[in-house]
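From the shared-data thread, chain only:
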Amino acid sequence: AVRLSHMSSNKSRLQNNHMDAADVLLALTAPEPVVRYVEQRVRSAGLRVARVPATATVLRVSAPSATLEREAEHLELEKRLRPEARSCASERHWPMREFVLAQRADFAGAGEGGFFTPSERVFLVTALLEAVPVDNASFSAALAAGAVREVPPRHLSSLLRALASVGLLGEVSAAHCAGRLEGWRRSVGLLREWAWLRSSEPLALDAIRDYWGERTGFLFAWQAFYVQALAPPAALGLCIWWRRPKGTSVDDDSAVPVFSLFSVVWAIFFVQLWRRKQAALAFRWGIHDAHTAQAEVRRPEFVGREVVSEITGEVELVEGRGSRALRYAASLCVSLACLIVPLAYMFVSLNLQGYISPAARHVLGVRVYHEALSAFAAPGAVFDPEAWTGMLPAVLHAAVIFLLNKAYRHVAEALTDLENHRTQEAHDNSLIVKRFLFEAFDCYIALFYIAFELRDVDRLRVELVSLFSTDVFRRVFTEAVLPLLMQRLSRRRHAAASAAAKKEDGGAGGGGTDGGSGDLELDEHEDFDDYLEMVIQFGYITLFASAFPLASALALACNGVELYSDLFKVSYLCRRPRRPRVSGIGTWLGLLYVLVAASIFTNAVLIAFASDQLAPLLPQLFDARQRQVGQWPSGIVLLLVAVEHGLLLLLLATEVTLPRPPRWVRLTLARREHEALLAKRRLLLEAPVVATPLRDVIEATPVGGGGGSKR
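Structure, as tokens:
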């Protein structure tokens, strides 16, 4: 009931949106004959098109309600039913149904201006625009009239793809409209009312999704869920830090193993419960199977040879297996080469901090100890560990990590383009994996070396605190403080420009708009970096829980600020995204699984072999003489194996026993399936039976050599 009331309130706020509330801006880099041809083709498809004032090549595309309704039926968009039209048990439980034009009277708000949410209108207009066909003869004539020499490939049937193939398509973006600040205002209202303590959703997710789309909605839903889930480990970490006796370090604190075990169990349930939340949101927003529609959409940049399909008989592009293997091999070699730079600087940083001794083992045949660099960490030197300057190498390491990650971003994009993925989904997944693996290697490699090679938990804590804290404060500044300053500067510039315009117009020109061209000047919202930063932080918290129990508390405080600063940035400073509908966070969920599984091993090894944290709890298993010669008692090894296997079994058990969709979702889907089966049987029983006379059957039966026998 609460979810339905939120949806109703969101819809009532959008009723005043005008017919063109979700226009799509089409920016061309084409001569006038091509622009006129594009206008003619778009209008012939039933869309509205007009040029943005003060521009010659930016078109504003919209669609009338009748066209949107036909496209909604074609794309099987789910809409809310009127109370009197809920005839089935599943519809009374969850009043949503795929839109059917013949039954439009059954849907709440059909025919009104706010029937489709702004994000749905963008989705429908974009789908219509991408389906506008191109006529090769007339398009070639328009290109010739505009002195454009490029010729589009013959296999392209879409106007937008044809324009992109000859380099005449600039950008396709969505214009801002009424409801832009609705999600921000309602979320701030929930914050002021302390509703996040009583509700499972501290943000107005439905309002965010209605305007910004499902992909942005899932981003903020996952961030909010993550912030709320951090409360238990943050509280336990603070308690452990508060009760720690003086003179006790993290290396020999008997409470830290309990916290590590709790953190791993928490991470397991966090991922599984988010999957349930994600499935519930996908069903609630009517997109639980949206990923299947996007999986087969071919990228315009895909390169291959033209062949005639044996199935459809149409011309299509294919790429040979040998060419694809060469592309993947080249991408892998370049990626591995890029890892040499952060690996080398890691040893430079560790030498500057004095962590590497002359007796350190070689890595890949290279000596990692450097006497000249280690001299800076000597007592009384510049980076003396006992002085405040001893933290500078770790802070500098965090800054270098940030710069390397920024540089590798362009390398990863170029390598992903080189791989020539056929679909946009495969391209995005490959880019996500590349950037995550590089940044995870860059951020975690020094911590792994200190933890498992040097086996020094105290130094691991110092390095982790430096990297984690520097990254957190950098994000707060770039995600919260900097956007606020930019927004205030933007307001001042806009006020000055408006005052100057009024002065030029003699005071009579106030209230004019740019028709949407200003939206193209806004920054694009990149949710990739938001996901990446949070997932890397999740790795800091889970992989090395025994080294820094306060990490969860620090992350909770900073992520709470960043959650609202990100929403503020999106609402005020970013361009409206034009993204496909998605049913979850995609590949990021798989990466979270990888981190959870890895945390089982890292925390077990840290507790058992890299520290003395178990010694106060299980003194009978520890032998100081064996520890001094590098041998480990069999009891410790058996305990490590038992804990590791137990946590792995818990991960598998939660995967099998915890259903992903909540019960109300599974119940509604089962009712829908049952009602569809009953309706199919009813149609078969009510279908008229046409009796054929026996004489007609005999006359129609072939005789002799006709291939049959007369009966």
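The CA atoms of residues 132 and 320 lie 30 Å apart.
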